[in-house]
Amino acid sequence: MRAARAHAALSVGLLVAGLLAAGPAAAGCARPLFLTFDTGHMGVAPLVAEVLRRQQVQVTFFLANERTQTDGGSLDAQWAPWWRARVAEGHLFASHTFDHVYWRGDRADGGFEVRPSAGPRAGVRSTMNAAQYCAELARPAARLAEIAGRPAMAALFRAPGGKTSPALLAAASRCGWTHVGWSPAGFLGDELSSDRYPNDRLLKQALRDIRPGDILLAHLGIWSRQEVWAPAVLEPLIVGLKARGHCFATLTEHPELGEAARRPAPTSSPSRP
Question: Per the count of CB atoms within 10 A, which of 12, 76, 133, 235 is most buried?
């Protein structure tokens, strides 16, 4: 029992140390930006990792087990080495719900109408109570701990599509999770129609509108977009924003979200009104 407690304490200590280690990227920078990536079909994940390494940029990843281009899952064994490498590089990790569960409405009994877009019930509208939703938030944290060999996720989540309600946010907060959205100018448009929003337009718009402190949102693969965003936009965007005096940091350095970002993800899921 003592050995188990010691191992657990060491694991949490390693997580906290890792989270704190992510901070110096923003040290001394007066114009920080917070680049975040949600999972997706993972088609551009190797490119994203290469660009981040080359540009020495640390980001926050929001993890769900979404369907990939090889009909697996973004957190399956095929992608485990990719995630393990990102943990070693010092990025931050947060939950996106395991089955990419969209909130669709609140129920009178305190539960929620939901629709997963991944997993065995993908596309099926169903219900969850607060405890079940909290358990869903905790599943990516458990999977990442398996991959990394230690706890590696912060107490942050992003609801798929950013769709929430005050009741949903309150339920998540009671079980230890803090929600993260994105800034209006930080919506980078990689899931928009290529015809209406070509890559050059999205790049120019982002370079024009992004301001210090913004949370930026992109994905590791989008099914619907024909003109893939990341190969054409990601590195020019990072280079252009750096040229404007910006730097990049994980959400551990965010003035409002930093405290939650430095907390380990909850390991249990109680949620009581």
Answer: 133
